[in-house]
Amino acid sequence: MRIDILCKVVDNFGDIGFVYRLARALSELGAGIELRLIVDDLSAFHAIFPGVDPTKDLQVLGTWTILSWGLPSELVRMERPRIVLECFACGRPDWYEDILFDPSDSERRTILSVEHLTAEPWAVEFHRLVSATRSALVRKWMFMPGFQAGTGGLIAEKGLEARIASWRDPASRPRLRLELAGSAGVALPLAAEDSYWLTVFSYEHDYSRIVSELADFASTRPLLVLVAAGRSSVCFVDAWRGAGEAFPIVKLPFLDQESWDEFLLASDFAIVRGEDSVARAALCGLPFLWHAYLQDGAHQVVKVRALLDRMWPHFGEGDFARYEELSIAFNDRLEDKPSVRGEESIISLLHRDLEIKEGFRAFSGELRQLGNLAANLVTFLGEIV
């Protein structure tokens, strides 16, 4: 089975992060799957997967052929596409469009429009929905990742369950943290492997209130904040300095996807942004605060509420009320700027560490029962191709 995956990088690294994760998971399913990845920003791809050469319009890595979106016409020599994954309504390059809809091609072609992740109820209605194209030989279906039954679920690679179990083992966790930091070239403060780890990776935000509460929390137990490279780094560090550097932080270098996944697993709590990181945190049972992608009219709050609706059965009433209030306050915004500040309060949740962990872990167990999105996608292709 040869599958083409098309991707335009819109939200920094979120789109290509999902595509790379999906490609990895598809390749794990069996030697019979060959992938062609057509990407408009090979530099972003290289950042999360250093094996990609951003200067090459055409390259082969194992069973993957990687092509740039703007492939020069003289390099367009490829077998005709038969199965196409069009991610996040990215469209198709002109040269690819000409091949896909070539009227001389008499064989059927199949497009799956892999859509954005959402917990909103309409995801179930749209999943596997037929969509028209301009050719009877080119058939198209919607495919919805999701947090509920009736969707494609989330991407889970082989060995994930075992890695989650090893990180949850309190006896091995300090050692694993030290090994992870060493492999990433990250210097930890003395005895930080035994601290409460909180990771920050969001959009721009005024972190002064959260930093103040983290300072209070740090007075009751050892705390280490891992500040990921990206848009939230400067605003968080500025707030931390303004509060007198009341707890230790470590500024993480830009990490490849596999290393970033491990730092999430190593954390006790994470502030995450976009779709790929929130999906990862939820799937792994990590307590998280989601900074959703900004949408017109603050529609991101609708997406946050939909996810909360999926999560609440796994929490005690008081804990969920605190988490809901925090999540809405953090996301009720019309712009992303270091001056944007909500009324979010995080400290009461952090003090309920053991109780909320149980809720997030129960939610992750439910998500993993939905199956691996990559396997669900291939099963669906087996039904329609």
Task: Explain briefly what this protein structure is.
With 385 residues, this protein is α/β, with parallel strands linked by helices.
What is the overall silhouette?
A: globular
Q: How many domain units? A: 2
Helical residues, percent: 40-55%
Task: Give, in order, the helices and strands.
Answer: EHEHEEEHEHEEHHEHEHEHEHEHHHHH
CATH hierarchy class name of the largest domain? Alpha Beta
CATH architecture of the largest domain: 3-Layer(aba) Sandwich
CA radius of gyration: 22 Å
Strand order of the largest sheet: 3-4-2-1-5-6-8-7
Mean pLDDT: 95
Low-confidence stretches: none
The biggest sheet, with number of strands, parallel, antiparallel or mixed sense and barrel status, is: 8 strands, mixed
Work out the number of β strands: 13
Task: Give an overview of the whole structure.
The chain is of the alpha/beta class and 385 residues long. The protein folds into two domains: 2-154 and 371-384; 160-368, 3-Layer(aba) Sandwich (Rossmann fold). It contains 15 helices and 13 strands. It has helices spanning 14-28, 42-48, 94-100, 122-126, 160-168, 173-184, 208-218, 233-242, 257-266, 276-284, 300-311, 317-331, 347-351, 353-368, 373-384; strands at 2-7, 34-39, 58-61, 64-68, 83-87, 109-114, 130-131, 138-143, 196-200, 223-227, 249-251, 269-273, 288-291. The strands form two sheets. It has an eight-stranded mixed β-sheet with strand order 3-4-2-1-5-6-8-7, covered by helices on one side. A five-stranded parallel β-sheet has the order 11-10-9-12-13, sandwiched between helices. A hairpin with a 6-residue loop joins strand 7 and strand 8. Helix 1 crosses helix 15 and helix 6 (173-184) runs antiparallel to helix 9. The longest helix is centred in the last third of the chain and has 16 residues, at 353-368. It is globular, with a radius of gyration of 22 Å. The model has no long low-confidence stretch (mean pLDDT 95).
